[in-house]
Amino acid sequence: MVPLSYYLALSVILFTLGVIGVLVRRNAIVIFMSLELMFNAANLAFIAFALHYQTLSGQIFVFFVMTVAAAEVAVGLALIVAIFRTKGSIDVDQVSSLKG
Amino acid sequence: MSGAVIFFLVLAVGAVAAAVGMLFSRNAVYSAIFLVFNFTTVAVLYLTLGAPFIALAQITVYAGAIMVLFLFVIMLLGAEKLSAHEPLAWQRPLSIGLGVLLLGEVVYLVAIQSGMTAPLPMMQGQFGGPVEVGLALFDRYLLPFEITSILLLVALVGAVVLTKVERIRPPRKEARTEIGEPRTVMSASAEQREPVTEIGPTSGETDVEITPPK
């Protein structure tokens, strides 16, 4: 069988790619997708540890993470639509009205 | 190298390639499709990790519902491409470099330094099946499960409130001067514009919709 560290390494790589996406991209929707990628990487680590320790709690936690992610996406996309109505763009560099 | 390791490596390479493709594709629709591919490969990994229920929930909830929502918003806004103008151009290579540095650190700490190189145990019996997960969910985790329903309800109401088109019901007689102000005006060109709403004296019953500035 595959060692646990392989799954952890994959999870870390996916999480870091999500972080890079949040840092690099300016499209607010792609930033949201990178957030989903980070959720996904954390879920993978949870599932791997659930099998490693032979307990279902990790899988249950992934279930809750999924529901929270669904709620977050609904509210976040609603925010993006509202920003687009106001600004006419979803470029996060242009959402700088609060800049000091 | 056993067959399981080769299978894992193929899936892992696919997932990482899909994530990289999501990051660096110009078009947001392509990013969404790459993300669907990533979610699917990770769902297959869940299957190999003894979590069939979570794997299928991943496909239906993530790759199905959430990505449909993303694609819907992308196509609704017509915002799949941004202008190539980059105001902070020097930050992009810096962020990529720092991200790679973070990757090296965390891979070293989590995967190598922690010493968890023992092979994972085989899944046994019904571990992770719908019956087991359902029993755990409605027995030991019943209260968090119920709180989840409240969370989803709040998100539903929040999404409806946030995307509601601003409608101003005209008042009966007084306060006529305040209703012409569009609330959402930000740009300078729109500030000099005439107020969008013109309320006639007989339009007491109709709703007036304020169109945001382009």
Kindly describe this structure.
The complex is a heterodimer of chains A (100) and B (214). In chain A, 77% of the residues lie in helices and 0% in strands. Chain A is built from three helices and no strands. Chain A has helices at 4-24, 28-52, 57-87. Chain A starts with a helix and ends in a 13-residue tail after the last helix. In chain A, 53% of the residues are buried. Chain B is mostly helical. Helix content of chain B is 60%, strand content 2%. Chain B has helices at residues 3-24, 28-48, 52-77, 91-113, 130-139, 142-163, 188-191; strands at 167-168, 208-209. Chain B is extended, with a radius of gyration of 26 Å. The interface between A and B is large, with 74 and 90 residues.
Strand line-up across the major sheet of chain B: 1-2
- Helix segment count of chain B? 7
Which structural class fits the helix and strand makeup of chain A? mainly alpha
Order of helices and strands of chain A: HHH
Could you tell me how far the N terminus lies from the C terminus of chain A, measured between alpha carbons in angstroms?
Answer: 55 Å
Helix fraction bin of chain B: 55-70%
Please give the radius of gyration of chain B in angstroms: 26 Å
Count every helix of chain A, treating DSSP H or I runs of 4 or more residues as helices: 3
Main sheet specs of chain A:
none
How much helical structure, as a percent, in the residues of chain A?
over 70%
Most extensive chain-chain interface: A-B, 74 and 90 residues
